[in-house]
Amino acid sequence: MDIGAELLSGQNELFTDPDADNARLFFRTKSRAMKNKLSTAEEVVKTMISDGDYIAIGGFGANRIPTAIIHEIVRQGKKNLGFAGHTSTHDFQVLVAGECFDRCDIAYIIGLEARGLSPAARRYIESGKVKLTEWTNATLSWRIKAAAMGLSFLPARNILGTDTFRYSAAKEILCPFTGQKYAAHPALYPDFAAIHVHECDIYGNAHVYGASVSDQDLAKAAKRVVLTTEKLIHTDKIRSNPEGTFIPFWCVDAVIEVPYGSYPGNMPYEYFSDEEHLQEWLKVEKDPEEHKKFIRKQIMETKNFYEYLELNGGIEKMIKLRSIELLIDRNKGGLK
Amino acid sequence: MDIGAELLSGQNELFTDPDADNARLFFRTKSRAMKNKLSTAEEVVKTMISDGDYIAIGGFGANRIPTAIIHEIVRQGKKNLGFAGHTSTHDFQVLVAGECFDRCDIAYIIGLEARGLSPAARRYIESGKVKLTEWTNATLSWRIKAAAMGLSFLPARNILGTDTFRYSAAKEILCPFTGQKYAAHPALYPDFAAIHVHECDIYGNAHVYGASVSDQDLAKAAKRVVLTTEKLIHTDKIRSNPEGTFIPFWCVDAVIEVPYGSYPGNMPYEYFSDEEHLQEWLKVEKDPEEHKKFIRKQIMETKNFYEYLELNGGIEKMIKLRSIELLIDRNKGGLK
Amino acid sequence: MSDYNPMELMICVAARNLEDGATVVVGTGAPCAASMLAQKTHSPNLCILFEAGGVAPILPSMPISVGDSRTFHRAIMASSMPEIMETCQRGMVDYTFLGGAQIDMYGNINSTMIGNDHSKPKVRFPGSGGANDLASLCWRTMMMTVQDSKRFTSKMDFITSPGYLKGGDSRYEAGLPKGSGPYRIITNMAIMGFDGESKRMKVLSINPGYTRKDVQENCGFELLWADRLSDTDPPHSEELRILREVVDPHRYIIGR
Amino acid sequence: MSDYNPMELMICVAARNLEDGATVVVGTGAPCAASMLAQKTHSPNLCILFEAGGVAPILPSMPISVGDSRTFHRAIMASSMPEIMETCQRGMVDYTFLGGAQIDMYGNINSTMIGNDHSKPKVRFPGSGGANDLASLCWRTMMMTVQDSKRFTSKMDFITSPGYLKGGDSRYEAGLPKGSGPYRIITNMAIMGFDGESKRMKVLSINPGYTRKDVQENCGFELLWADRLSDTDPPHSEELRILREVVDPHRYIIGR
Q: What pTM did the predictor assign?
């Protein structure tokens, strides 16, 4: 079939190597041992992320995000990172504050959904400092799934015929059985991924509740994976419900126990997002100076995630957010 | 890329249409309504399977199999079916007894794993009455996954360079990014699939425990799907644990409550396989006349699954098999 | 006849297009409100999906994110993004709603950027998110938007999500699923569909208080007109009551 | 030195090849016994996978099916067949074991049929099952088998699962994963590996009680021989004790 001529290619840069054999050679060396993987955000960011690495963040922007890791990346001043802008919202906004990345695969950036757009993220992207390649939510999900499956690409029926394709790094291919045209999406094997989970054991066997977005595939696709967890559990809880294992130990390189670790984002069944605090982020970003001050106070001058949480209301705030998550109206009823 | 010449194709027949648009046109008409789907094996086999259809059976041969449906297909004398021989063992053996299919996608047939080979299945296949196309367990899993994803193919790195490929209907393709050679596996959209589950509601929202084999993908890939279930549950149980939903209602056309429905197969956490009865099957198959008599007695002359179960020990047998599944030694301990 | 605002009209009209037993992927805001209204009026069996994985939730309130816990509150399934997108790709999802900064006569939508240099946009928007995927893979795409001649344009800075591309069969020829595409564009002034052949935007009905002239003057390209051009049936008092009292009591959306 | 049978020797030798912290996909029978023995001796951290989805179970007894409930008894994960196969394809699985009716000098295996007409086989076997997948996707394939010149043949009726195909780089050139392939063939008479260049089967050590002549005479093709041909270290008494008392007390496998 010599129809190669008709097949189009996206013109933008592919920031990562999709080669499945190269990925296999890495995974061959990745430890499969069930060993204690407990660590700290400081240690993980120092030892598992190098300037220039390509990183991905689990969850959905301001839902079930590993805030401690995102902040620590800014705190340690990591630079020239590549970033998977997959349904990224508050996580993107934080990394922008540190000007941590200089290339970005875009599905959804700059916005915080119904909350509005981030002025700082907009300035950073419109500045031209960041190399951009266009994708979509499904495309990045499938690029990550291709890697999780040990492939170098997956075919799909989206983005064809649009500028989204033109400014992507996808390629058109034909189905060898039907002649149907497909977009081939290159596998995405990130160097590093951080995922926040509800509970996991010291080996990284994890449970997650609620929408899982792409995190099961991301845990497999990434070369190095850290889990932050609301709480540690005993492995017996994993073994008593093996069909419930969301991420198995062999995907995981480090585990950090971080109660309230998705704050200011939503953690399903645990606490809702802190909308006032997220609005504060959007507000201060309007003035670059205010923004710098805010970031200094909230991230650069806090020792870790707990100081940041304390600064914004601590456990009492979390109790309020838990009430919102559970739809409890504390002004109504209760024992007098 | 004009390397088409070098790319090989499997030479055997592709029994089903992999076209994704044709499948979409069918799925467009499939009901998405949450309505009561309760039915009976007799009704389902009569109305949902036509001679000549291509069918697939969930589970793993003699583990979590929809025995009531498999028997009813033989009882109603369905003919000229196509069959997905995906880790099929006892299910294959039963359908062979009815000479129900005349074409088969092969991953694993004839054998009952550690139990030995089925003489009847062997005779049937060696007779030349059945058109055979070779695949593998992973290949059929991925062919079903391709359909579940709404594609016409998936690339994979297995079966290349072997006679398994030569006698399959797969085709070689090249990755447009790396030039890597892949086997392209055509999507498999069965006309009908039957899956046995632990529990589901009247709409077909189901829970399954233990290894899931390919059943989540099969429920999506098949055009018509029936669930047999150990027990019905209220939809509240589904809604109270939405991350645990194994199959959603929109995949399902009919629901049949069949306690002990995987007998003589294993049902994880409920009852072990009836190894004596399965050995009896293998024994009687050595003599075609014995085999005919056995099938008449066990299937043709039983009204339904319950009569078959009763014939082989009924609930008391199931209590024994439950003890084996739960590793309980009833000869030791207990209240005197 | 009860009074109403443009957003209320658009939501009520959108809701009427969602028949019982259908599936729809929605985002936050008006599309979610329209779907909830449909459920509480003529389509109790409408199945709402959210792209992060939520399926058929019993929505306690408007989600602020398509991935927040409201989107799978007492849901039938809390699945994944690939699960939802593959369900769309398989042809099991009937409707979706999109928004954007620009739309052309073929229903192509821009939600990526304004400017002519992709590497240095004049104005950068969030990008596709799931918009291109849903516009590509769901059967029928709808849009609710205030209409003006800047937004309805013949000069697209960027085509983020596919409508009928260049019209005719070009959408199918590009490889997009057969029979899918834009279905209704619901604005403050009119309701548009698309011509069966040319696939150009065609006005089906004009909203109360507007004229054919208004509709064309507030559109940057030439509109086609239905032979039987009708008046849009305005929101019924019962629709408005449910929308205001049950669906959006805090007026998060209808208050805009 | 304690007495032992050929199956016990093959299982003990296979177990020694499974280092701690490795991953191995096994079927029922001897491979499962070898993996359990390894866990109970030098590899407590060996991760056992079953193709139907079971991961790292605490095996209460020998499974009778690779999908029965023993294969995920108190397991780390009860997943799916695609999950296991994709984990292999991603390069996370180190070892697997295969069996077959025929094997050639490049480690290609036949478990499909005897005869020359595929549509009407003289003898039909179950087929690949997961064998081709695991031989293609795991890093190192091993085989335990009784050796004779019929089974070890240069005339394969059917190549079900890939070894090194035609030798040299032909396996990689066919598109199979770089660096993967047959690793050890463990028979009742000897232990074979494969030559680094030609990829032909090469005898590494000879089992007690057998001669170089025995090994060649019971092989249908010409074997290569290691420069330092050694004697196979026979089963140690502790290995045999654990195998007989803990792993297979009912002698389901070692009794064959």
A: 0.98
